[in-house]
């Protein structure tokens, strides 16, 4: 099932500007709204100096945008070891282009994203694995590979320097050279991806990340994931366009006492969540300023409920799908693979306000960032109102799925076999098999699925290519209203989720799986083929 990429590696790298301190631009003035007895002052650049002096100020990832004339973004990304300081200590982690902040890609519906992925990871065992006697691929608390009933090579974590690319959330072809994730890009090789983004693609926040079965958890946990934004109608709303656009990659980045991630057991080290490669960074805001936060849960296994002290959020969209109108939210729940776009209006009182990761499924994350509201005042309007129309926009891509569209139903069980410490993760009682038939569906039809969880662990279900509409989801840290369009949703322990999905535009073979990535690597993935 795995195709080998045979194209010789190329030498050019992604052309990006330096990932220096986040440049905090001046706020734009309020639009016709009084702030108290008098109009708040328009924003000036005076506060930018104060923001620049903050200790551990949030650093923005570099960005690349598509050429508006050619409707094309060409980018080269290298999978390499990054040697840098993480929270004051030197580390060596697999990542993109050598740092903890992969480039943010910005495109628009109708554009083509031409992405060259060069695998510049070592050919053989890493020095750490060699020093460990070649056992760096072990399961740790899951047992040694030979001890796990029902598991053989494919579902034992392996191939940590083999890779490929997945554009998580993009509605594009699953066929090569587009979002085909069943190929292998070996060290020294380059895969030339080309993603034709449909003209009717929803605008929103997606991301790209490594997806080679067997090495996904280790590579994504080490930082092989970056933001991918499809700009559109929401971005043109003047009050939203006036906001500073802040990309936040929420990352795991676990390391052992050598500052490395070479062993599956290291995935269980700590519960720290980094933002753009920083521990508890300072997010600078002026009094009354409104910022647009683009939040990507790019961790391998962290279930986060975000809450900003003495502030709320105004949600614009989730999982790359805009809402029809804004929604107020006190908290935002992000399972691994989820994304959220929110507006945040700074308090009028200067001070420090904690961004907390919450406590879910027995794990408490604590403070992951701190908003520093400085003295400079900034009169901005917090937009609340309509965003898009599901009936009129995106060629009906996000129209509610009616009962009479459904051609079949499926009941899909997420489980495990074996007993502790030796088990493997399954879907419908079986671990992933590359030669399995999997599910088949017809292009242009819709289905209703009931997802059940037969284990004590939560499982974030993710399906490639097409989003789904949630009908029922209970037992989650933050309720998901019926009708919400997502591409990743958590099935709580011994719970269930009901959803509907359409197979639009693209036939071909793709996958669905648990986005707790160690579970995926160890069998919790299945194939689905959409037939024309």
Can you walk through the features of this model?
This protein has 532 residues and is mainly beta. 5% of the residues lie in helices and 40% in strands. It contains five helices and 35 strands. The strands form eight sheets. Strands 13-12-15-20-17-18 form a six-stranded mixed beta sheet, with no helix packed on it. A six-stranded mixed beta sheet has the order 26-25-28-33-30-31, with no helix packed on it. A five-stranded mixed beta sheet has the order 2-5-11-10-7, with no helix packed on it. The longest helix has 7 residues, at 46-52. The two termini are 21 Å apart.
Low-confidence stretches: 1-39, 127-151
Give the termini separation.
21 Å
Outline type: globular
Alpha carbon gyration radius: 22 Å
Q: Helical element count? A: 5
Helix content: under 10%
**Structural class category:** mainly beta
> What's the rounded overall pLDDT mean?
88
Strand content: 35-45%
The main sheet orders its strands as 13-12-15-20-17-18
Number of strands: 35
The main β sheet shows up as: 6 strands, mixed
């Amino acid at each position: 099932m795995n195709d080998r990429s045979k194209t010789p590696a190329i030498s050019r790298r992604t052309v990006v500007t330096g990932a220096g301190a986040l440049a905090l631009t001046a706020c734009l003035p309020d639009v016709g709204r009084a702030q108290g007895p008098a109009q708040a002052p328009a924003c000036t650049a005076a506060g930018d100096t104060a923001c620049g002096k903050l200790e551990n100020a949030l650093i923005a990832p570099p960005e690349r945008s598509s050429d508006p004339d050619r409707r094309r973004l060409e980018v080269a990304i290298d999978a390499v070891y990054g040697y840098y300081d993480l929270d004051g200590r030197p580390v060596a982690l697999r990542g993109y282009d050598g740092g903890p902040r992969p480039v943010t890609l910005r495109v628009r519906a109708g554009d083509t994203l031409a992405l060259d992925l060069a695998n510049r990871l070592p050919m053989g065992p890493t020095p750490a694995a060699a020093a460990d006697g070649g056992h760096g691929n072990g399961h740790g608390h899951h047992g040694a590979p030979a001890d796990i009933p029902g598991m053989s090579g494919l579902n034992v974590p392996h191939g940590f320097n083999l890779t490929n690319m997945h554009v998580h959330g993009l509605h594009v072809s699953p066929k090569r050279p587009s979002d085909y994730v069943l190929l292998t890009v070996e060290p020294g090789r380059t895969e030339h991806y080309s993603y034709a983004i449909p003209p009717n693609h929803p605008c929103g926040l997606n991301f790209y990340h490594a997806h080679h079965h067997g090495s996904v958890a280790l590579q994504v946990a080490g930082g092989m994931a970056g933001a991918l934004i499809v700009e559109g109608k929401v971005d043109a709303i003047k009050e939203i366009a006036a906001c500073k656009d802040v990309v936040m990659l929420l990352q795991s980045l676990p390391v052992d006492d050598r500052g490395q991630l070479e062993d599956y057991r290291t995935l269980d080290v700590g519960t720290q969540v980094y933002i753009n490669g920083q521990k508890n960074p300072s997010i600078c805001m002026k009094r009354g300023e409104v910022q647009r936060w683009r939040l990507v849960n790019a961790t391998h296994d962290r279930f986060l409920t975000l809450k900003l002290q003495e502030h709320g959020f105004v949600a614009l969209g989730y999982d790359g799908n805009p809402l029809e109108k804004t929604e107020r939210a006190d908290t935002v729940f992000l399972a691994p693979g989820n994304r959220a776009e929110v507006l945040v209006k700074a308090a009028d009182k200067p001070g420090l306000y904690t961004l907390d990761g919450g406590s879910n499924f027995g794990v408490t994350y604590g403070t992951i960032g701190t908003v520093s509201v400085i003295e400079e005042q900034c009169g901005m309007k917090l937009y609340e109102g309509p965003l898009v129309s599901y009936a009129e926009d995106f060629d009906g891509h996000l129209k509610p799925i009616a009962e009479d569209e459904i051609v079949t139903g499926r009941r899909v069980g997420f489980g495990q076999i074996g007993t502790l410490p030796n088990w493997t993760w399954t879907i419908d009682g079986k671990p992933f098999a590359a030669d399995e038939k999997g599910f088949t569906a017809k292009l242009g039809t819709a289905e209703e699925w009931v997802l059940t969880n037969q284990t004590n662990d939560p499982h974030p279900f993710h399906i490639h290519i097409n989003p789904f509409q949630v009908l029922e989801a209970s037992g989650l840290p933050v309720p998901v209203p019926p009708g919400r369009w997502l591409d990743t949703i958590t099935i709580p322990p011994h719970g269930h989720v009901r959803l509907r999905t359409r197979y639009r535009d693209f036939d071909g073979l793709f996958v669905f799986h648990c986005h707790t990535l160690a579970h995926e690597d160890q069998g919790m993935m299945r194939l689905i083929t959409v037939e024309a």
